[in-house]
Design goal:
The complex is a heterotrimer. Chain A is α/β, with parallel strands linked by helices. Chain A has 5 helices and 5 strands; from the N terminus they run E-H-E-H-E-H-E-H-E-H. In chain A, strands 2-1-3-4-5 form a 5-stranded parallel sheet, sandwiched between helices. The mean pLDDT of chain A is 92. Chain B is of the alpha/beta class. Chain B has 3 domains: 1-43, no CATH class; 45-258, Rossmann fold (3-Layer(aba) Sandwich); 269-312, no CATH class. Chain B has helices at residues 2-13, 17-28, 34-41, 61-74, 128-138, 154-161, 177-187, 201-215, 237-253, 256-285, 289-299, 305-312, and strands spanning 50-55, 79-85, 94-96, 111-117, 143-149, 164-169, 190-193, 226-228. Chain B has a 7-stranded parallel sheet with strand order 4-2-5-1-6-7-8, with helices on both faces. In chain B, strand 6, helix 7 (177-187) and strand 7 form a beta-alpha-beta unit. In chain B, helix 1 packs across helix 2, helix 1 (2-13) packs parallel to helix 3 (34-41) and helix 2 runs antiparallel to helix 5. The mean pLDDT of chain B is 87. Chain C has 22 helices and 9 strands. Chain C has helices at 4-26, 55-58, 92-104, 116-119, 143-149, 168-182, 198-204, 211-228, 240-244, 249-269, 274-277, 291-312, 318-321, 341-355, 375-391, 405-428, 431-436, 439-456, 484-499, 502-518, 523-531, 536-547, and strands at 82-83, 109-113, 159-163, 190-193, 232-233, 235-238, 281-287, 325-329, 360-362. In chain C, the strands form 2 sheets. In chain C, strands 1-9-8-7-6 form a 5-stranded parallel sheet. A 4-stranded parallel sheet of chain C has the order 2-3-4-5. Chain C is globular and about 85 Å long. The mean pLDDT of chain C is 93. The chains are: A alpha/beta, B alpha/beta, C alpha/beta. Chains in contact: A-B, A-C, B-C. The A-C interface holds A 14-20, 23-24, 27-28, 38, 40-42, 44, 66-68, 70-72, 75, 95-101, 114-116, 118-120 and C 116-117, 119-120, 122, 127-132, 135-136, 200, 204-207, 244-246, 332, 335-337, 369-371, 445, 448-449, 452, 455-456, 462, 465-466, 473-479, 481, 483, 552, 554-555.
Chain lengths: 132, 317, 555
Amino acid sequence: MAENRIRVLIAKPGLDGHDRGAKVVAQALRDAGMEVIYTGLRRTPEQIVSAAIQEDVQVIGLSSLSGAHNHLFQKVAGLLEEKGYTDILLIGGGIIPDKDRKKLEEMGFDCIFSPGTSTSKIVEFIQDRVNG
Amino acid sequence: MVKKVAELVQGIGEGKEGALARALTLVENRGSGYRELLDEIFPLITPCPIWGLTGAPGVGKSTITNFLAGELVEKGEKIAIIAVDPTSPFSGGALLGDRVRMMDLAGKPGVFIRSMASRGALGGLSPAIMDAIALFQAFQVDRIIVETVGVGQSETDIVALADSVTVVMMPGTGDDVQTIKAGLLEIGDIFAVNKADLEGAETLAGLLQSMISSRTEEGQSHQPPVLKMIASQGNQLEQLLQEFFHHQEYLNRGELKEKKERMRGEMALKMHLQARFQDLFLGPLLGSEEWEQALKSITGREKSPAYWAEKMIPGRD
Amino acid sequence: MTDKSGQDKLRQQLEEWRKGPLAGFQKRGWKETYTSYREPIKDIYTPLDFPEEKYLEKSGFPGQYPYVRGVYPTMYRGRPWTMRQYAGFASAEESNRRYRYLLEQGQTGLSVAFDLPTQIGLDSDHDLADGEVGKVGVPIDSLADMEILFADIPLDQVSTSMTINSPAAVLLAMYIALAEKQGVASDQLKGTIQNDILKEYFARGTYIFPPGPSLRLITDIFAYCSRELPRWNTISISGYHIREAGANAVQELAFTLADGIAYVKAALKAGLEGDDFAPRLSFFFNAQMNLLEEVAKFRAARRLWARIMDEQFGAENPKSKMLRFHTQTAGASLTAQQAQNNIVRVTIQALAAVLGGTQSLHTNSYDEAWALPSEESVRIALRTQQIIAHESGATSTADPLGGSYYLEALTDDIENKVEEYLEKIEEMGGMVEAIEKGYVQREIQKSAYEMQKRIEQEEDIVVGVNKYAHEEAAPDDLLEVDPRMEKEQIKKLQEIKKNRDEQEVEQSLNKLKETAEADENLMPAIVEAVKAYATLGEICGVLRSIYGEYQAPTF
Ligand SMILES: Nc1nc2c(ncn2[C@@H]2O[C@H](COP(=O)(O)OP(=O)(O)OP(=O)(O)O)[C@@H](O)[C@H]2O)c(=O)[nH]1
Ligand SMILES: [Mg+2]
């Protein structure tokens, strides 16, 4: 009677306080049957990675709207790599232009979702990648 | 599979957070090898005090936990926190938000926070919590704090789980005589009336105090204290920490501690047996030919469920 | 229509129309429609929904209580609204250059956007500031940065609007100290600080202290400014961010007005005279796509505030009862897909603000949500306002839509629904309690999530996103801040710390601590500290050590 549930960490790195998107996605993932750990605002990359390790999540979702994504997202990816957690699915969202998206995807992000992405698309992406 | 279990056991022995985290997932998922894992780590266990915090949603449990753990870590302890939130009965998913309120502990060395959903436990505690505690004890933590939302069954479960239980309440949420009667009085070793900055705290504390006094039996040496506090301002939290220590000492003095140990052992045994029964007997029956036959007969009003249950027990027919 | 028999006749014929012609056509196609706050909209509105005999009581005339039809008798025929475009630049030097250019062009209104560390009271060298310095505005660590920001700008010649909340007292103190250095008397200073802390807790997230001390800082500013800076707008009570966070129109109004009520109560409790500070309160709303509902929202806002100030607080001064507001078009409604469609969106939203009687307006550039707005897009945004002002005829008379049965019914309905919220919040013990209980946050989250689901289920249509979409490349040129900037700012900060009189800093911070503990007005002590070049982080640090930091509730 093994019962595998997808566990996801939703985090907001940096000082940006706009959490509408993060919370909408968190609710959508919960409604899709996932266990969603929400960290709250103003987390450092170190805190996010530490939480992801302790919670043993399969997915980390980051959201940023302040333009600090390049720096903060890269730091999270770097720390995960350094600690040997590259198997965690790493996704991001927010106001992120195309060339940054490409850069982040090269740095270890599995997907950067653009504004207006439907939550069902995010759900499907996670389910495919984690279970598939 | 065996190799994986061995790696996890070794990692836990070496104090690796990553190994512990994966082991926790394995037992929580009842994944393959989890029983071997629990068996293997058993000799590594060093028992440690387990403190419980329970109460209605939003009364301030995480705020209190944040403080308690912070203080204990300052003293050099290694702390584990298990924060349990309910699983949504509709989707099976859960929103685990306790970390939001444990800001000061984020990334702090010496603190391991694990958020758990109640999963199948219908409002009660997930059976995996018992096993999680075992894993933490094998990881050599000095103390475990379990935060559970006090709804239904979990309130009574926590008594079996924790050495010392603080029931957290707040004024103005229907935490009145009605709910107090509903069983909370039985389970608290300590009572915290939080949000004393709001109206009605005085009344609630007074009410609690009188109910406790009237039910404490003659000769019973521990009368649960009632603390009024403002957790968000750090007010009276030191006091709560001291009360936890007092209760711990009180347990250590008498034979209560052994009784608790026994209770925990019994509960864990029962849970594992239930799980095994489920795996071995119920599992194979579900959807089997006999199952369908029984259902047909029950809905056709031929034979009762009671009849079929008796008949389906292996070795009975 | 005023007599009863007329109404009965109308009612009867309406029923017949519903049963006959309408029902017949409904079979061919009929869609339920709703307001943003999910109230079903009727098939048709008639004089039954806005009886004439209520006109004087409910509407009156522009410039008269209850101000539904506008706060000034002439409205835009006297003077159009102020077209105030807000822009953020990464460094104090760059902003200064821009300001001086604008001044040369004859513009006198400056607006300052600060970066996030500044908004949260952290110096640029703080751990949490890593990667955020200069990202969404100017970093200000000390008076020295302020000196650069306003170099060669005589402060008595300009009006400065600062989007700053939790540490508003400190930034205002720097502005005052700078004026003193320039030899400008403080009663000559004109401008606005946002200073609206409550919405930060549930909609925008740049809070520092818990609500109690935050409210004290705000009332200290009210008191200080009514004495020293009589021409300063001490607060801009903002619904804009509440709406951006996912609230509907009713929630935007209800939570903004509830914030306003909380500020008035706090000020009265602090011993201020209502008619002294209330005329300096101003509001800031969002303009969304639903044109008529938005116009109704603005009208309802005016009537509600007038009634609140009159009935609840017994204000005497008419200015205390006038809700004056700034509007910004809805940032969250802009789509990355087919970006030029946003020009049309902004036009409709801006029109809603104008038909709703706004005092000033910012129109978004069609690409500004994710890209460095091009010169062209900035110009189009401003031209949009100018076209409305000069070509549309919307300014020809006051409240041109007043009297539309539908609009008046919506105005009443929004007013009623807002009042229900206000009563509920009052029952909880006021807005601060409602926020601390997480009630406000939950209401907004619920609304945001449902809105998202309606879009995904294509119940709500967003052109170019869930309908009429086509493949296109994502836009590319986001405002990029040179990462070296952060290092330079930190170096500047270290320089200042090296060159100032440490003893003076320490003394002023000690004095601040004593004042905070003693419950005296904090403004003079903060002014002294900034003059000694104590940093924003140091000043907020002292206050943090006394007040603690706000912790958000879980959700
Ligand atoms: N007024 C007041 N608010 C408090 C106090 N203690 C905690 N809170 C607030 O109560 C809210 C809930 O606190 P939590 O610590 O998350 O409560 P919880 O019991 O862990 O909540 P759940 O895990 O959701 O069941 C937060 O917004 C806290 O800031 C207090 O003493 N007074
Ligand atoms: Mg909690």
